[in-house]
Amino acid sequence: MSKYKDRQNVSETAADKDSNDISLLTLALMLLRGWKTIVLLAALGLILALLYIRYVSPTYEADALIQIEEENSQGVSALASISQPTGTIQPTLTQAQTESELIKSRMVLEPVIELLHLTIQLSDPEVGHLDRLLNDRINTQINTVDGVSLKTEDGSAQIINFDAPLAYLGKKFTLVRTKTGFELGYEDKKDSSNDLSFKGRLNQLNSFATPDGNIEIMVADLPAENHPIEITRHIFKNTTDSISKALSVAEVGRLTGIIEVSLKGADQEQVSLILSEIVKSYLDQNQSRGSEEITKTLQFMETQIPELRAKLETSEAAYNEFREQSGTIDVAKEAELLVTENYQIDAQLNELKLQKAELTTYYTEEHPLVIQINDQLRTLNARKNEIAQNVERLPEVQREFLKLAEDANINKEIYLTLLRNYEQMKIVEAGQIGFARVIDFPSSNFRPIAPRKLVILLLGIVLGGMLGTMLVLLKGLLRNVIRDPKSIEAKMGVPVIATIPRSKSLKGLSNSKRSTSPLLSYADHNSLSYEAIKGLRTFLMLGLSQGAAEQRGQVIVLTSESPEVGKSFIGANLAEVFAQLDKKILIIDADMHLGSLHKTFNVEQPTGLADYFSPESPTIANITHPTSIDNLDLIPRGEQVSNPSSLLASERFGELMTELKDHYDYIIVNTPPVLATTDAVILSLHADQVLMVTKHNDSLEGQLAYAIEQMEKANIEIDGIVLNDVQQGMLDKNSYNYAYTYGHSK
């Protein structure tokens, strides 16, 4: 047990040292060893990128530029610019950011959706996923003022109108041409009792009654019979939201007042048409907003003109009547001046009152324009009161004359001023334009903006390569496989007595699941692999001679930590090279679970090791079979049994081994893996040499260490490790790089 503890301490010390020895060079070598995985996944990423490019429909874009004017003349502002009242303040201008949001509003988009029937969606159910991959382009629906159309292989579908009740909005209907017209069907997947089917005629409005309301549809054309078309009427808001999502509106630069509007979609002409209608709808809304104020002002003036005319006529009649009764009155110079000034003040007061009446239609009393007019009114009223006090000193007749003359002149001036402003506003209305104008209308360049093929291909390669790199690194870091013999010796405390290179002529040897390992003497007798087997034979002969010189029946046990490491391959070829020494050699296939040495030596297996323990008790001669190689016999595994460990631990097996030692010089025993069964431990009790076979760049260091630990816990010393299937190359640490071959040596 002390030897076991020493080896365990050496193994733990080496493992601790190695855990801190992961350098950049190690990672680089790890990536170079896994270059096939990286290239494979990069190629897979490229293929997926190609499939994505073929599958995804191209996306097109149309754009337009709209300028928002900094100043405009409309409404009350237009009237103010004509009449020029004192201290008029221009209203605040609409910002481009606000207009950007207005363009995406339902107020602008809904007229476009109604005009182009964008709530109607057509699809061809005959177009599947494979068709999208095989065809460069898949036809999409075209929405125009006349309706919705979709091209198919069997003809075109054209729908002029389609309206459905709320319960069927967003549901798929099926249209199929018939001899007399068409058939409209709806299938409810949850409840078949709600299925619908109607027959209609082409080129006329059809109305079909349903429990939830009438369905109205007008079909102009359909593909050939038996080619269905799926039609859906979407909810208006959903359509608006989808267009708003595809619509991009942003100001170009900073405070430029220029807005760029762009729209993306699957068809270039369709996108350009929709965007053009959106721009027109926005301009119409902008125009109507600009003329709305003028319209209301004109309506107000039209109600005031008849009243002012009647008031003027009344005041003129009273003035003329007074002159006829009193005769002509010579107003003094002072009175004339007062009358003139009072007349001017009254004219200004009435003009300001008119402006105030118009402004209070839109603004409150706290508005700056209204406050300014109120201040002017107070000033003029104060001066009017002062004049009135002076006039009171005039004779009574003169005062009456002045009063009537003043009323007539004021009413005339108010009437003429309002009539003049009315005509001027009509001129403004005729030339009214919005404060937005289109700089560039949408145009078609028919160049898709997505998918960006080169970028996607490069991205697929890069992502595939990165995934491959991650897998290689993860596999290398988590799956610590056996590579370097010196590292294995340091970690396990057991010498590596042989490294068996992979035979270039027998690359299939590394996959023992699909092929049985042949003998190198027949298939690759000039290879380094065969010479390495001979070197292992020499090592074993020297080790055995030190233990017991000239003693017959030397037992060599071959085991492994796990299956599929080439243990049977090593045992068969080792037995063959021992037979070349003109010694009696026996190889026992003690793997009564999955042993296959009878296939390697082409020996029929009527009886074998398992049969030796049967009630019939066959003799050694019955279970031992000669091979095609001189001096080499084989005991195959025999029929499968359920309790091989119990049979191998029995006294009968011990008697068998004792008798076999008297007949053979070397006995090679092929055992099951240590971590799979306890058979290897039992068989090693009869061994003179115990070898642990492991596989280069495949077996795990942890499993090998645990297998050796299990053997040593049973007081069984592992005499050496055989590293099989070594792939020598420039990427292997401490590579030997054998570059020569031997001749026909024995």
Q: How would you describe the overall organization of this protein?
A:
The chain is α/β, with parallel strands linked by helices. It contains 24 helices and 22 strands. An eight-stranded mixed beta sheet has the order 15-22-21-16-20-17-19-18, sandwiched between helices. β4 (147-152) and β5 form a beta hairpin. α1 crosses α14 and α4 packs across α12. The radius of gyration is 52 Å and the shape is elongated. The two termini are 41 Å apart. Mean pLDDT is 82; it is low at 1-5, 10-21, 71-94, 508-516 and 733-746.
Essential attributes:
746 residues; alpha/beta; 22 strands; eight-stranded mixed beta sheet
User: Kindly state the mean pLDDT as a whole number?
Assistant: 82
Shape estimate: elongated
Spatial strand order of the main sheet: 15-22-21-16-20-17-19-18
> Strand-residue fraction?
15-25%
Q: Portion of residues in helices?
A: 40-55%
Number of helices: 24
**Radius of gyration (Å):** 52 Å
Characterize the biggest β-sheet: 8 strands, mixed
Helix/strand/pairing category: alpha/beta
> Uncertain spans, ≥5 residues at pLDDT below 50?
1-5, 10-21, 71-94, 508-516, 733-746
The beta-strand count equals 22
Distance from first to last alpha carbon? 41 Å
Walk me through the topology.
Blueprint: H1 2-19, H2 24-33, H3 35-55, E1 60-68, H4 75-83, H5 96-103, H6 106-116, E2 120-123, H7 129-134, E3 142-144, E4 147-152, E5 155-163, E6 172-177, E7 182-186, E8 196-200, E9 205-210, E10 213-221, E11 229-233, H8 236-246, E12 247-251, E13 258-265, H9 268-326, H10 333-359, H11 368-391, H12 396-430, E14 436-440, H13 453-478, H14 485-492, E15 496-501, H15 520-523, H16 528-547, E16 554-560, H17 567-579, E17 585-589, H18 597-600, H19 609-612, H20 620-623, E18 625-626, E19 632-635, H21 644-648, H22 651-663, E20 666-670, H23 679-684, E21 689-695, H24 701-713, E22 720-726
Parallel strand pairs: 15-22, 16-20, 16-21, 17-19, 17-20, 21-22
Antiparallel strand pairs: 1-13, 1-14, 2-11, 3-4, 4-5, 5-10, 6-7, 6-11, 7-8, 9-10, 12-13, 18-19
